[in-house]
Amino acid sequence: MRAFDLSPLFSTTVGFDRMARLLEQMPSETAPSYPPYNIQKTGENAYRVTLAVAGFGEDEVAVEVKENLLTVTGKLARENGEGESYLHRGIATRAFERRYNLADHIQVTGAALDKGLLHIDLVRELPEALKPRKIAIQGGGHKRLDSKAA
User: Fold this and answer.
1) Is the Cα torsion angle 64, 49, 8, 5 positive or negative in sign?
2) What are the DSSP calls for 25-59, one per residue?
3) CA neighbor of 47 nearest in space, from 10, 11, 14, 7
4) What global pTM score does this model have?
5) Percent of the chain with pLDDT over 90
6) How confident is the model over 44-65, as pLDDT tens digits?
């Protein structure tokens, strides 16, 4: 039996901590490799997605959340190549689109571009109805039903 490397599948999900074991049984597909990124757990219910977007400005990168799908797109406002001559070109500045499936109740709390890295902060906010709650146990004996009252 062959073993499958599911790291590309895990790298596009945030907040699916309990489903990791189930996903190990699914076949993987190759994930796009540009731009490189990290997914980090920064707290009990907090996450951070960091993308390396060297060469992109704040107006050239867009972050959008719609129906539990986080989409990050980058498109240069200027065209590379016109009047530019490279001896070596190792910094990729091509357009990109990255999609991340978010678990239920994951909210995007902010995004910041700093030194070529785009940081997107996420937090899991469970509604009060889904949070565990403690039920108080009443003390005392059993109440008897008086047969004369019936």
Assistant:
1) negative
2) TS---PPP-SS-EEEEEEETTEEEEEEE-TT--GG
3) 14
4) 0.63
5) 23
6) 889 999 999 988 888 899 999 9
Average pLDDT of the chain is 78
Residue 93's H or E segment, with its range, is none
Residue 59, phi then psi, degrees to nearest 5: -80, -5
Contact 21, 111 (CB under 8 A): no
Other residues' Cβ atoms within 10 Å of the Cβ of residue 107: 11
Give dist(CA 27, CA 5) in Å, integer: 8
| Residue 19, helix vs strand vs coil | helix
Identify the structural domains of the chain with CATH numbers, from first to last: 34-127 (2.60.40.790)
Closest listed residue to residue 77, CA positions, set 98, 60, 92 = 60
Q: How far apart are CA 22 and CA 19, in angstroms?
A: 5
- pLDDT given for residue 76 in this prediction: 82
Could you identify the residue written with the tokens 């091509």?
Answer: 94
The candidate with the shortest Cα–Cα distance to 96, out of 33, 9, 30, 7, is 33
